[in-house]
User: What shape does this take?
Amino acid sequence: MNAAALKLRNAPIVEAVLDIDCDTPTDFDLASIEETTYERLRDRYPKRRKRYSSAFEIEMKPEASSQLSAHHTVQAFQFLHDDEKQLVQVRSDGFSFNRLAPYESLDVYLPEIERTWRAYVEIAAPVETRVLRLRYINRILLPMEGDRVELDEYFKIGPRLADEEAMDLTGFFIRHAAVEKNTGYQINLVLTAQDPDGDKLPVILDISVANPLREEPGNWESIQKSVASLRTLKNRIFQNTLTEKCLQLFR
Assistant: This one.
C-alpha cells in the first residue's frame, strides 16, 4: 500500500493535530488579539477557553520560612466547535488545529486549516514559521484471549522481557526519537498500553513528525507541501509499526 494514500475504513485515530510554530514580533501581545480572533472565527467556533501555563518560585530567606509563589500566564486561546470535536488554537508561539474523533481525512480538513491559518496570519502578523508538526494519536483495541495478547502478532516493534519464560508483562511504555536522513524531519513515536477494556487491550500509538521549516507565513503553498510530506512519513511509520494482522482490524 502507498503510504501517501493510506485508506482505512475504521482508522483508530482519536486526535490529529497540526502545529505551526512561529516567530512573532517582539511587541506581540497574545491577549490583545483574543477578541479580534474570536470575532473572526465565532461563526464556526462559537466556544472559547484559555489554556494557562504555570511557573512556581521558591524564595529562600535566612532565618525565615521559605515562600512559594505561583505565576500563571495565558499560553493559548482555544476556539471550539459546538460539539468540541474541532478547535483552533492561537498560541503565544504559533497556531494549532486539532481534530478529535470521528476523523475523516486530512484532505477534508485542509481547506479549513488554510482558512483559519490565513486569519491567524492576518491578525497576529507572525514573522516566520519555525516548525511544522503533524501528530496523530491512535487508540488500538487488541482482542484478548483470556487475559493475554500476543503483542508480536500486532506490532513489528514491541516490548521484550529479560526472561520471557519466568515473567509476565503487565505494562509497557516505548519511546523512539529519530531523524529521517534524507529530509531532516524529526520523529517521535510512543507506544504504550492502557488498562484492559472488557475483552480488549487498548494500546496508544502516538506518532509525531516535524519539519523545522523556515518559511514566509503567507506562503501557504509551501506550507501545504510540507504538510503533505509529513503525512506521507507519518503513514509510512504507522504501516511499518503494525503487522498486517493489526492493519486488518481497521479495514
The first strand starts at residue 13 and ends at 23. Residues 7-54+71-250 form one domain. Residues 220-241 form the longest helix (22 residues). The beta strands are 13-23, 47-59, 67-80, 86-91, 94-100, 128-143, 173-179, 186-193, 200-211.
